[in-house]
# Entry
Amino acid sequence: MPTMQPLMLPPLVIETQNLTKAFGQQKALDGVNLQVVPGAIGLLGPNGAGKSTLIKCLLQLQPITSGSARLLGREVGSEGREIRKRVGYTPEQDCHIPGMVGCEYVTYCAQLCGLPFQAARQRAHEMLDFVGMGQERYRKIESYSTGMRQRLKLAQAMVHDPEIIFLDEPTNGLDPKGQAQILDLVNSLWKRYGITVVLSSHLLHDVDRICEQIIIIARGRVLVHDTLENLKARRRGAAEVVLSGRHQEFESACLRRNWACEPLPNGHIKVEHHSDSLNSLLGLLDEIKLPPLEIIPSPNALEETFVQALEISHATA
Amino acid sequence: MPLHDTSYQHWEGVHLGLWRRRWVIARAGLRACLQGKWMRHLIVLCWVSALGMTTVLFLVGQLLVANSIVVKWMGNFNPALQAFAGMLTTWLEQHPEISVRTTQDVLFYYFCIGLMRAGIFALGMAIPLLITRDLASNAIIIYSSKAVSRGDYLLGKFITAFVLIFLTWLGPVCAAWFVGNLLAPDWRFFWHSRVAVAHVLVFGAASMTVLSLLALGVSAISSKEKSTAAVWFMWWIFGGVLAPIAVQTQPWLRHLSFNFDLDQLALAVFRPAHDLTIAQTNIPILGDMLRGVRPQTLASLATPELQGAVAALLVMLALAAFLIRNRVRPE
# Structure
């Protein structure tokens, strides 16, 4: 008789049961139930959806009205200090400890998490190097630009080597180059260093680029919690085709097969081929002897899922 | 471009204990306070005054011993003074509890009360740096996201305020007592002045705790640095002006001044009226001099309004706790 191998599931990093947070009559979180495994997690939602409140409740920055939550296997509420020793957080708003220079501030943050001074100072410089800050680390924080402050926030969140890091709108106020740099850094945290990342944002592109798991939240409720792969699978049947020319010919061929197609402002052509795979689309391109430059499957899966979830939420409200 | 490896490195080490983390907060606060030039000058001034007090104690001690350097030096000018010192020495041998204890108790009462003002002034300068700045820069969120609680943060800030007053008040007073008695001609001075130093420690510890907590409360009132400093100094000055006026109208109004309440506490702890009475009846020459003190003055020293002062201070502390509880939050 074959022996049953136990199913090895990764430990949950976030676990909530009926988590509710109310401000007076207004419920910012309304019975949130989550079971999140380690990874790069995107927390999506419109402004005021409850994303930041969820993070703050998990970090005990705000008291929970009812329900329970566990972070890294520990009970939120009774083991706050121990949890925060293993958690990093970059708040959405600008916040720092005044009167300090950058490296002094990051060292101080490490010491607040229990690192001895020598280790804290060494880690602070390592993290400032990691986020790409140069000699400006020796300047007062008050003189920093928005981009530098975002980098500094990231450095202070990582300086004590957390197991999970919460990033609340980390690309706010950054120029496109700065956004790309910060996202690359964040991307590497899980993929290269195994640090679970929870990226809260209302920018779908940021989340799409980095995250493997998606949590969509609106009106204090979790609408969707799934992997990005699954969400994209649900949205198969559409693709964006990038061609070097002969656009008209391609569109005519699509229409002959009753596939809706639409030229996009960026020059791509969006095609609804109603198939789980790209084989039929590739077949069509082969038929008209038109080699594509690129085919992007399920290009707007996240956006469409997001919009659909919000519409359902509005309809049921 | 950095020449070394800039990739992320995991850290494996032993975390510091909770009290070390609290001390980190306190130390950072102290460093911020001591960066101010005027604060450093004030602290130096307080220690210079301690040096002055030490000199006074040294001279008093020398006067009480017949063959001391000072008495011999005085004898060169006037032999009668040397004879008088000899009389004091005999008197010291007979009544050490009066000659040393009473003298030092009175001296330290006035020194304590005087330096308390310096401590209050130092707190006024430090108040914007305690909680106010953190409220303005949202630093509370950073603290709250680290491995310290709100209580740890407040304890750290309390220690900052406490150490700051210690540096400007209790530190110089205790140092003056120690060095002053170290330079005294007889080791027994330490023993005979034990009551004075006990009074200093009891009053100092109680007042420093009260003042530190009140300073934290005022510091949490606003996120504007000038406002909180202004509130502290206005409260102090207004109380000082109000107290003598209110004696004639509504005496209970005097308790709105924390300074007045702490003065009453000092009177209750040191009991200078008791010391003056002993001095009047026992100390040669001084007895006649002290008979010139007005009876009203002695009466006010003899009957401190301790209950009212303690009640007022407790109400103030409750208000401070309420302010801190409501203002020091991550949001």
Summary: Chain B has a mean pLDDT of 87. Residues 88 and 284 of chain B are 8 Å apart (CA to CA). Chain B is about 80% helix and 0% strand.
